[in-house]
C-alpha cells in the first residue's frame, strides 16, 4: 500500500479522547507488540502518524481505525465498541461506554480524560470515588460482580488505582472531591477496610492539590441527590466534559448547556458542604468511633 501523509483531525472532543485511550490500550495489550514502523507499513502511513493517533495529537477517521484494529487482530465486541466511537454513532453530546461495573473500557476512558484535564470536580454521595480509594476498598467494589474472574478483578483494581497517578504526580491534577456523609459511614468491604479507607481520606485531604469536602444528603432537595458525577476541565479551546457512572455503563456529556448545568450544581454542592477542616474532623470522628467499637 502506498504511503500517505494523512494523519487525521485534532483530538478535541471527549469522544475523540476516549477513542485515543482505547486505541492505545489495544496496542499495548499486544504480545508480542508490533513496532509502529511495522504497523505503518501495513497501513500505508508514517510511523509518526500512528504515534500521533496514540498520544491524542490527532484522531484517525473510521476507515483508519478499522485498518488499525485489523492489523492488531481486534475482533468481536471490543472491535465494535471502538468502531462505534470512531464512527461517531449516537448523540453528538452524549456518548456511552458499556460493560459491567468497573469494566476496563470505562476506566480507560477516565484515565484518558484525567491525563489531559487541567482540573476536575467530583461529587459522590454514597461511596468514596475511585481517585481516593485504597486497594481493599476498590477490590470490595469491583469484586462484588460474581461473573468477574479473580485475575480480572485484580487487573481492574490495578487500572482503577492507576488513575490516582494524576493526583500524585509531580505536577498533580487539582481535584475537588465532594463526598456525601454516607460515604464515610458505610460498610463497604467491612470494618477493617473502612478504617483503612477513612485514614487514607484524612491523609490525602492534607495534599495541596486536593480539596476534600463532605456534604449532608438528608436535608432539602438538590440535584446531587440524583447521583454522582465528575466535571473535567481542559485547556482552551477544548470543551469541559461531564462523566456519569451507572450500573453497567458510563455516560460522557460534552454539550455546553448540560456541562454548564453540572458546573452550577457542583457550585451549589460546595455551598452546602462542610469546609475542609470540618470535613476532616468528621472523618476523624468516624475513625475514632469505629476504633472504639472494635
UniProtKB/TrEMBL annotation:
Residues 35-78 form the HTH cro/C1-type domain. Coiled coil: none annotated. InterPro entries: Cro/C1-type_HTH (IPR001387), DUF5753 (IPR043917). It comes from Amycolatopsis australiensis. It holds the Pfam family DUF5753. It comes from the Bacteria. This is HTH cro/C1-type domain-containing protein.
Amino acid at each position: 500500500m502506498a504511503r500517505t501523509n494523512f494523519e487525521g483531525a485534532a483530538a478535541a472532543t471527549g469522544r475523540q479522547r476516549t477513542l485515543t485511550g482505547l486505541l492505545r490500550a489495544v496496542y499495548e495489550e499486544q504480545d508480542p507488540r508490533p513496532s509502529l514502523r511495522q504497523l505503518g507499513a501495513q497501513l500505508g502511513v508514517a510511523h509518526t502518524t500512528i504515534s500521533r493517533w496514540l498520544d491524542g495529537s490527532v484522531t484517525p477517521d473510521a476507515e483508519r481505525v478499522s485498518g488499525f484494529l485489523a492489523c492488531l487482530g481486534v475482533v468481536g465486541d471490543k472491535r465494535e465498541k471502538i468502531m462505534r466511537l470512531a464512527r461517531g454513532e449516537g448523540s453528538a453530546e452524549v456518548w456511552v461506554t458499556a460493560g459491567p461495573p468497573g469494566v476496563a473500557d470505562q476506566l480507560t476512558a477516565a484515565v484518558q480524560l484525567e491525563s489531559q484535564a487541567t482540573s476536575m470536580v467530583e461529587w459522590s454521595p454514597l461511596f468514596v470515588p475511585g481517585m481516593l480509594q485504597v486497594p481493599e476498598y476498590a477490590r470490595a467494589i469491583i469484586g462484588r460482580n460474581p461473573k468477574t474472574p479473580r485475575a480480572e478483578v485484580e487487573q481492574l483494581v490495578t487500572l482503577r488505582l492507576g488513575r490516582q497517578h494524576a493526583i500524585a504526580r509531580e505536577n498533580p491534577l487539582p481535584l475537588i472531591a465532594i463526598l456525601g456523609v454516607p460515604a464515610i459511614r458505610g460498610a463497604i468491604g467491612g470494618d477493617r477496610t473502612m478504617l483503612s479507607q477513612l485514614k487514607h481520606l484524612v491523609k490525602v485531604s492534607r495534599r495541596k492539590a486536593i480539596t476534600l469536602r463532605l456534604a449532608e444528603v438528608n436535608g432539602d432537595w438538590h440535584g446531587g441527590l440524583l447521583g454522582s458525577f465528575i466535571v473535567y476541565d481542559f485547556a482552551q479551546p477544548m470543551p469541559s466534559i461531564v462523566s456519569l457512572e451507572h450500573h453497567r455503563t458510563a455516560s460522557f456529556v460534552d454539550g455546553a448547556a448540560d456541562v454548564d448545568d453540572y458546573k452550577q450544581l457542583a457550585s451549589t454542592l460546595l455551598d452546602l458542604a462542610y469546609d475542609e477542616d470540618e470535613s476532616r474532623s468528621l472523618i476523624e470522628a468516624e475513625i475514632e468511633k469505629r476504633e472504639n467499637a472494635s
